[in-house]
Amino acid sequence: MSTSHTDPVTLEVVELIGTVVARYHQEYEEAAASHSLTGAQARVLGLLTLEPTPMRKIAEKLKCEPSNVTGIIDRLESRGLVERRPDPADRRVKLAAPTDEGRDTARRLRESLRFAREPLGGLTDLERTLLRDLLLRMLGEETA
């Protein structure tokens, strides 16, 4: 059975997704500001805590120009939150990596994001898994 893209439930879901995204961005910006970071700086720092990354790849993940990432990394580096280091696999490539202080700042930032964590905490493991799988499906990605 095909569902119209303008049926009431679809329209309500689209509005709810927009509301969730807006609230998440607002809280993320406020949390970043409380650590004297811009939202973009906080996002880059968060990405780097997963693994040291070449700036070109950071730009791809954030869908922005590499020159923007260079400026963000410069500011994070001047605050002692990030360092540049050679890529062991290719010495010509520079990796951006968080310092200990950068990892600590990213952890405190994540811990201060209540909006996403608290409502999700009210869901059962099964509900969170279902929500994750539905979101991945909407994005055209395979479930884990």
Please write out the topology:
Layout: H1 8-34, H2 39-50, E1 53-54, H3 55-62, H4 66-78, E2 82-87, E3 90-98, H5 100-112, H6 114-121, H7 125-138
Antiparallel strand pairs: 1-3, 2-3
Helix pairs in contact: 2-4, 2-5, 3-4
Would you kindly provide a written description of the structure presented here, covering whatever features stand out?
The chain is mainly α and 144 residues long. It folds into two domains: 8-112, Arc Repressor Mutant, subunit A (Orthogonal Bundle), CATH 1.10.10; 113-144. Helices cover 66% and strands 12% of the residues. A three-stranded antiparallel β-sheet has the order 1-3-2. Helix 2 crosses helix 5 (100-112) and helix 3 packs across helix 4. The chain is globular and about 55 Å long. The mean pLDDT is 89. Keywords: DNA-binding, Transcription, Transcription regulation. InterPro entries: HTH_MarR-typ, MarR/SlyA-like, Tscrpt_reg_MarR-type_CS, WH-like_DNA-bd_sf, WH_DNA-bd_sf. One of its GO terms (molecular function) is DNA-binding transcription factor activity. Pfam families: MarR.
